[in-house]
Amino acid sequence: MKVALITGITGQDGSYLAELLLEKGYKVHGIKRRSSSLNTDRIDHIYQDPHHPNQRLKLHYGDLTDPMNLTRIIEECQPDEIYNLGAMSHVKVSFETPEYVGNVDALGTLRILESVRLLGLEKKTRIYQASTSELYGGMPENKNDKGFYDENSPFYPRSPYGVAKIYGFWITKNYREAYDMFACNGILFNHESPRRGETFVTRKITRATARIALGLQDKFYLGNLDAKRDWGHAKDYVRMMWMILQAKEPEDWVIATGKTTTVRDFVRMSFAEVGIELEFTGVGVNEKATIVKCVNPLYQIEIGKEVLSIDPSYFRPTEVDLLIGDPTKAKEKLGWVSEHDLASLVKDMMQSDVKLMQKEQYLKAGGYLSNKHLE
To answer: Which residues are within 8 A (CB) of 190 and not within 5 positions of it... i.e. 6 or more apart?
Structure first.
């Protein structure tokens, strides 16, 4: 039975990857930070009583800033595969906590690689490092001849998060070449799901849309609506992570859809899922979205109601306006194809958040959630 260790297992990617590996018969170990509040919602459905004889998921308390702890966990698990998904991954917040981001996202990667080397596991353990499209910084002159960013495009990170991740990228590549380790970078473009954190823009949009449709919220605020992103589904991307570590040779890979959409259009698509049509007026910080039509009888909102405004505080100090990846290598060499397009992703997220907000609505009305309501 193969053994995998996942940092960041309680996050969006970690939870989907744990599901995938368990389906494939792995024993899965996950690292989670100690907290006084429970933060395992995304994996509770796959976690059994630790005394259960068939339990193949085990959690360990740990932190990417603690090298001795990481070394102890890796020695105990003796993993065949390590997926380093743990990170402080919010770009805007990284400007407020730059030192912490460097410690976790950059040096955390080094600590895992060095632990594997010191334990003599460099021939046994394959390592996946979660890299990011923020390495490219959206610089137009760095695109390939098709107008995309690929594995050979130069980097120009535009945030402390991107800078920390570029260290993680190069130290992974360095250990691969210096110590003959099977260590790979997956340069993931934006990937979303119903499990996306509430502070990330896509989830902020779908949550707000559901709340507005149900009458729980009047409006919400965003930053740069012109920003364009290559949005895929996290389920497709974690499958590619696994495929990367099954390849014959360790390499670096771009994981993307090759299509880009503005934040504004993501908002438009989200409201369309509940039968609401928006009109955008104004320019820059004065732009706003108002209701022009409601075709779903369940979600009737006053025509002309303003539901979205711009908050300048949400703009980044150095904005990345356009990111679009070229997944040609992944498709041609590993046979990876995405099973979800943007429309199905938005539908998946909206259906989930409408159900979530209906529970909130029910509770606010004085209802009691039975097990049936929680299904």
So the answer is: 133, 202, 229, 230, 231, 232, 323
Q: Is 132 a catalytic residue?
A: yes
Given 10, 109, 132, 260, the catalytic residue: 132
Residue 278 three-state SS = strand
Per-residue pLDDT reduced to its tens digit, 202-212: 999 999 999 99
130: amino acid identity, one letter: A
137-160, pLDDT tens digit by residue? 888 888 898 889 999 999 999 999
Neighbours of 141 (CB within 10 A): 7
Q: How far apart are the first and last CA of the chain?
A: 32
Give the pair of three-digit tokens for residue 178.
């210096």
What amino acid occupies position 233? H
Residue 134 known to be catalytic: yes
Sign of CA dihedral 203, 241, 333, 110: positive
> For the purposes of burial, counting CB atoms within 10 Å of the CB of 75, is it exposed (0-12), middle (13-18) or buried (19 or more)?
middle
- Tens digits of per-residue pLDDT, 324-356? 999 999 999 999 999 999 999 999 999 999 999
Identify the active-site residue in 161, 175, 237, 299.
Answer: 161
Q: What is the CA radius of gyration of the chain?
A: 21
- What global pTM score does this model have? 0.91
Active-site pick, 19, 122, 134, 273: 134
Cβ neighbours of residue 123 closer than 8 Å, sequence gap 6 or more? 180
